[in-house]
């Protein structure tokens, strides 16, 4: 019985190592994708500083409105 439990434990450990390796590969892929996106954003900002500023301002206004609505919604008079 102990051998069966040991083999199941070893099998689970092997599966966990496999999953860990797959997760690490995916994390590396995501990191590379984020670096690429960061470079694209930086390039856009350098080429279009006015547009970038307007987009940033729009996102800030939208987030502020959502935050204000959430905070205001919790308080009833």
Secondary-structure map with pairings?
Blueprint: H1 2-47, H2 49-73
Helix pairs in contact: 1-2
The tally of structural domains comes to 1
Low-confidence stretches: none
Shape: elongated
Order of helices and strands: HH
For the sheet with most strands, the description reads:
none
Number of strands: 0
Number of helical stretches of at least 4 residues: 2
Cα gyration radius (Å): 25 Å
What percentage of residues falls in helices of 4 or more residues?
A: over 70%
Strand content: under 5%
Span from first to last CA?
67 Å
Q: Provide the structure class.
A: mainly alpha
Mean pLDDT: 90
Explain what this protein looks like in three dimensions.
The structure is a single chain. The protein is an all-alpha fold and 77 residues long. It is built from two helices and no strands. Helix 1 crosses helix 2 (49-73). The longest helix is centred in the first third of the chain and has 46 residues, at 2-47. The chain starts with a helix and ends with a helix.
What's a quick, concise take on this entry?
This protein is an all-alpha fold and 77 residues long. It is built from two helices and no strands. The protein has one domain (2-73).
Tags for this entry?
mainly alpha, 77 residues, 92% helix, elongated
């Amino acid at each position: 019985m102990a051998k069966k439990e040991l083999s199941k434990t070893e099998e689970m450990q092997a599966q966990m190592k496999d999953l860990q390796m797959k997760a690490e590969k995916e994390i590396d892929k995501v990191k590379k994708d984020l670096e690429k996106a960061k470079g694209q954003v930086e390039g856009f900002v350098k080429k279009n500083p006015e547009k970038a500023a307007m987009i940033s301002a729009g996102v800030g206004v939208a987030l502020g409105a959502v935050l204000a609505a959430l905070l205001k919604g919790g308080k009833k008079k």
